[in-house]
Amino acid sequence: MSVSRISALGAIALSGALALSACASENTSTTTPAGNGTSAGATGSANCFSGDLKAEGSSAQKNAIDEAISVFQNACTDANVDYQPTGSGAGIKQFIAKQVDFAGSDSALKTVPKDGAVESEDAAKACGSPAWNLPMVTGPIAIAYNVAGVDKLVLNADVAAKIFDGKITVWNDPAIAALNKGVTLPATPIKVFFRSDESGTTENFTKYLKAAAPEAWSYETGKKWTGKGEGKEKSAGVATATKGQDGGITYVELSYAQQNQLKMAQIDTGSGPVELTAESAGKTIATAKQTGTGNDLALKIDYATKEAGAYPIVLVTYEIVCSKYPDAETGKKVKAFLQTFSSDAVQSQLGEKGYAPLPTEVATKVQTAVDAIS
Amino acid sequence: MSAITDERRPDDASVPDDATPPGGRQGRDALRQMGSPHRARNVKDVIARVVMWFCFFLAMIPLVWILWTVISKGAHLLGSMEWWTGNQRNINSDDAGGGARHAIEGTLQMVGMTALIAVPIGIFTAVYLVEYGRGKLARAISFTVDILSGVPSIVAALFIYAVWVTTFGLSRSGFAAALALVLLMIPVVVRSTEEMLKLVPNELREAAYALGVPKWVTVVKVVLRTAFSGIITGVLLGIARVMGETAPLLILAPYTKNFQRDLFNGNFPTLPMMINQDRGDFALATAAERMWAAALTLIILVLLLNIIGRVIAYFGSVKK
Fold first, then answer.
1. How far is B56 from chain A (nearest CA, A)?
2. Of A165, A312, A359, B234, which one has the fewest beta carbons inside 10 Å?
């Protein structure tokens, strides 16, 4: 009785505080635009806008989008583009909650129900128009490891699945040794690091394990890790942890493995060990099939590919956009920025940052789709 | 027990007390005369002293360590003019340096807005509780403040998210984060102001009433005036509490590398979020350096505010 009265009082006090703050908000918002000082005209390029563009999502594409943002902001001095690398799951949630203008995700929006909600339908509801998945960057996923004295390591899907499932626990396990003849493997225990946050990298990696080693990997695929090991936050977290732990192994985007100077395993798909390069990853992307319709360019990757010289663990990171924004101004901003991002000039720079360029035919389709955003 | 009774009568010559500060010889004499009880007391004294100093140094270790780490790793970026004038626009994680002006301004602006809302509410609540409040309402408010002071910052942030974003459909902004910080700051201000007001002697109030001064004038001109320096200290504690708070910012105020002076629209730069952003790329020397420098800047800001507050409190306090 008294408790409910007290909580009622608390509610009154809080609503009072909110009412006060609402007044404050009105007062101040009228004065702020004057102090903003960004009214100077945009520079030459027709695609520039002045104002903010907000995006959030996959940390796998952070280094790529940072590069694109630099290029865009250098051309457009009045434009502010922000990207929060909080993970694919968070990005899609914020996009559906209309908190960001577009989302970055390592996997296309789900079209089947999960936890009672269908991502693509929710996104379409938030947009008031169908949401499109636009593949923008392809990032090879490295199996990065840190074992003292081992500079070259070959794994196949089966052995990798057993390592990440905790069934193989030491580095000199006969299964690993069989793939690495002539390499002296130490008896160091294997320490698996996985992404503790919801991540498209996890989803793509588990999809690979499931597709290429269905017997050894019995878990479902998904953004949450279901195997064994120790969780670390975000791509940088697993990369840093692996770097600091002898015997450590993780799955991480090539760009992070390169930044942290981690050694990367070669993958034997059945036709010989394949080293991870932009080229070998590009071969797998080229075999991908388009599953979306029209300008929705969701791709399906063949993880179990046995093509010679193709590195099978790749992810395609998408920009998730509204086909027609409720606010036309926002649509123009998204379009302007993505035109820069998908341009050949920017795409060709991304190779240096550890990403693989989109195959030409996909790139052309993406550019067409970006032009159709309104 | 015996130590207390002894201390209460240090002047009593018949029981010489070795605890009397300068009485070295007297104490030793007493020790010789009285024998073991004093020796035991001396031993206790030494043990207590050692334990106290040991604990003091133990408590100092993390403080000095943190300061040393932050200063040694972050100080040299602060030496550049760019740090104080520029922002992080087009500075990617593998680029060195850049500025922190955007985050410094953002933090000050956000905390300023927080204080603007929280300080009046906090002080008026405390005045009500001490000067006016009686009975159930006062007890209920006091209880609510207690609960509020126990609310973790992440819960305050999620509450504001639920109200601001989910219910009203507004977007995340610096102001939304300031609202969450208000929830964290109010109880600190209320509690400290309350304590200060209670310290004001009742005689002062009675003297004012005796002169026919109305109650509200007494509160404004006598009670609040007397407690002024204490209230300022409380407000500063509150500000220090919320300035480095990160959870509400993570949820309510996405970071931007650009200057952003609009609290109500768009992403908002703050020092804790800048630290968080660079923490994500900790393995890169460039980002790590920037992270330490931003941490040091935040510490300096809190320190500066404290000093300013002390100065205001010193000049504003009632001269005896």
1. 34
2. A359
